[in-house]
Automatic annotation (TrEMBL):
This is Probable lipoprotein NlpC. Gene3D superfamilies: endopeptidase domain like (from Nostoc punctiforme) (3.90.1720.10). GO terms for molecular function: cysteine-type peptidase activity. The keyword Cytoplasm does not apply. Residues 46-168 form the NlpC/P60 domain. One of its GO terms (biological process) is proteolysis. The keyword Signal applies. Pfam families: NLPC_P60. InterPro entries: Murein_DD/LD_carboxypeptidase, NLP_P60_dom, Papain-like_cys_pep_sf.
Length: 168
């Protein structure tokens, strides 16, 4: 009885399986670095202040709640208030309009990590605030998405940006 003949058909399948599996392992995957999420992650990775990085990481995703000041919900001015107090030791007023008056005006091009950016979505008065990070990104409590890192160069923000300033 010749047993090697009965193994040969399976040998072909075994070789085909090994070639298939090895080709899957050598496939090159590329990571897109031009997406909004990748750029936001890069802005976080490039923060000079590690406590600021940890603070943002700890608060990211906390839902928006008007007048909120804790992890069950926070508004934009409450987030800026807590961040500036915990990271920089600066006590801001509680309302974004008053925070804008408190901040020393600074040109958009000279913003540094921790500076404030102010917006007016509902008219002439400041009604939203965020904290500048770097490379055109800022962190804020969005009414729709909660605490998030966003691109300030988006037209939706550029149209309503009314002031930038420093409190540090």
């Amino acid at each position: 009885m010749n047993r090697t003949l009965s193994i040969k058909p399976y040998g072909f399948y075994l070789i085909a399986l090994v070639l298939f599996l090895s080709s899957c392992g050598s496939r090159k995957y590329t990571v897109r670095t031009d997406t909004k999420a990748a750029k936001a992650a890069d802005a976080l990775a490039n923060l000079k202040s590690k406590p600021l990085y940890r603070f943002i990481n700890d608060w990211t995703g906390v839902r928006y709640r008007f007048g909120g000041l804790d992890k069950s919900g926070i508004d934009c001015s409450g987030f800026a208030y807590l961040l500036e107090k915990e990271i920089y030791g600066v006590t801001l007023p509680r309302i974004s309009r008053d925070q804008a008056r408190f901040a020393r005006a600074k040109s958009f091009g000279s913003l540094k990590e921790g500076d404030l950016v102010f917006f007016s979505f509902g008219g002439n008065d400041v009604d939203h605030v965020g904290v500048y990070l770097n490379n055109g990104f800022f962190v804020h409590a969005s009414t729709n998405r909660g605490v998030i890192v966003d691109d300030i160069n988006l037209p939706a923000y550029q149209r309503v940006l009314v002031k930038s300033g420093s409190v540090n």
